[in-house]
Amino acid sequence: MANIKEILEENRRGSADHSAAIIEYIEGFKHIVLRGAGKFGTAFGSFLLEKGLPGEPLCYWDIRAASLREVNSVRVYEPFSLELDREQTLIINCIPNGSLSGSVGEQEFLAKGYRHYLSGMALFEALMCAMKPETGFDAKVCIDTTFCNWCACKRLPSLLQKQCKKDQLNNFKDELVFPLATFVVNQKCTLKCSHCGQYINHYQPEDRINFSLERIKKDIDRVFDAVDAIGYVSIIGGEPFLHPKLNDIIEHVLTKPNFGVIGITTNGICSIDDDFLRKLDKGRTRLIFSDYTAALSVKQRKLFDDNVRKVSDSGISYTVGQPIWSTPASLRKLNLPESTRFAMKAGCNSTITCKTIQNGVYYPCSTTAGIGSHHLAEYPLDWVAIDETQSAADLRAKIRQVDSQPSYGSCDHCGEGGEMLQLPGEQGVSKRYIHIETARDPKISSCSKKAC
């Protein structure tokens, strides 16, 4: 058989149909471990059983094994609690979101000697997704399927790009498609998560703001004009529901013809206005509740439940999930060798799934965004100041230039992290990141801080 990952990539993008060969490959293993027994793992396990795969080779590995016991009548075990023949075992990652969904999850198993490893998301897109190449991009499929992960999806941007090309949108000669673009609307939150990936606890008081609607709309206009398509437009903060103009921001994105779906990520510990829900587009927009209630107070849990109920009653697409967290990079300067930084950049998934537009700046990954937004170092080749570009073609060229670099200065700060956390959303200020407040370089100029 040809390289399984190559044919899987072709299938998930909709450029070929190797479905029978992929199923045959899976069936060839003595043991099939589904890592993760949540909504996605449940759906994918059910799919394999429906395809005629015997239940005997299957098992789930999940840290909740003691409470779950069985899913789809298949036994759930603690991760690595079984000693399996590594050459006869296929690991399928069924954690679609969070730290273990990408390269971190794969490295966890490779380190233990399990070298047969496939992404469950890739398999879902290749074998299960109802959005087919012959019918083309359909936002309704994405909105109606609530257990997959838009962040990692390659089928969505691939089929969307073909549709945009057919409609002759942004007629550039080359191709620039963002599977995901995250627009950050503010740097303030209703929670104080110790290990926040945005390092919200450590912004200076003057930086704890809502960005102006004018600034955000300008960023949306400039970026959409510069790219062929954006599969998933992610709206985050901080806490986006603290922004008084959130409705206007969403409405502005909805005017763009070259995007797939919008996701608004909220911790649910905020005021969700009924007027916002009435105006929210019900065909291409989803509210994504990150459930941190296990770490929160009774009063906060009640507010979360009330918000979920309100959204559910409105008929808007939404999901509720407890993210799996690991500690983010400390952002300390590590003085790594150039070869190490090159290798880090080459194997980094963040440059695909964490493209960030924040307060007038395009950042190619989450670490560059952390360094830039907290003013920790001046690395002008790590990001693009949008207002310093003169046209869509100029911005597009600068984005390409930044994206194609063999490494970033920020890569030297991308370490001292990755430890799994048992409780996402733990509240408090961790000493691990206190240095961010004192390391800030006062000489580094920031973009406009005009609050709404």
How would you describe this structure in keywords?
34% helix; Rossmann fold; six-stranded mixed sheet; eight-stranded mixed sheet; 2 domains; 452 residues
Describe the structure.
The protein is of the alpha/beta class and 452 residues long. The chain folds into 2 domains: 4-128, Rossmann fold, CATH 3.40.50; 139-439, Alpha-Beta Barrel (TIM Barrel). The protein has helices at residues 4-13, 19-27, 39-50, 65-68, 103-110, 120-128, 139-144, 155-166, 213-226, 246-253, 274-279, 298-314, 338-346, 350-353, 366-373, 392-403, 435-439, and strands at residues 31-35, 58-61, 70-71, 74-77, 89-93, 117-119, 177-184, 229-236, 259-266, 285-290, 317-321, 356-358, 361-363, 384-385. The protein has an 8-stranded mixed sheet with strand order 11-10-9-8-7-12-13-14, with helices on both faces. Strands 3-4-2-1-5-6 form a 6-stranded mixed sheet, with helices on both faces. The chain is globular. 42% of the residues are buried. The model is unreliable at 446-452 (pLDDT under 50).
